[in-house]
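Hello,

Our lab assistant flagged a job as stuck in the queue for most of the afternoon. It eventually completed. Since we weren't sure the result was trustworthy after the delay, we are filing this so someone can double-check. Below is the sequence as submitted and the structure that was eventually returned. Let us know if re-running is recommended.
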Amino acid sequence: MICKFVVTEKGNIIDVEVLQGIDAKLNDEVVRIIYSMPQWRLGKKNGQMVSSEYFLPIHCRIK
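-- returned structure --
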């Protein structure tokens, strides 16, 4: 499973998207978990805080 999201200049997570999913319910749960993460460290470019796009691989084991 691969997810994409943006961390804003304030460290908030926005625009979460599942690029490669497994199941609709599992995808929804992963999106919920990503949105509930604490704020991230900010990206910097030339000393300025900028929004950054991240790709996050998630490994799920279903029992």
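-- support follow-up --
The delay was a queue issue, not a problem with the job. The result is valid. Residues 27 and 57 are 12 Å apart (CA to CA). The mean pLDDT is 89.
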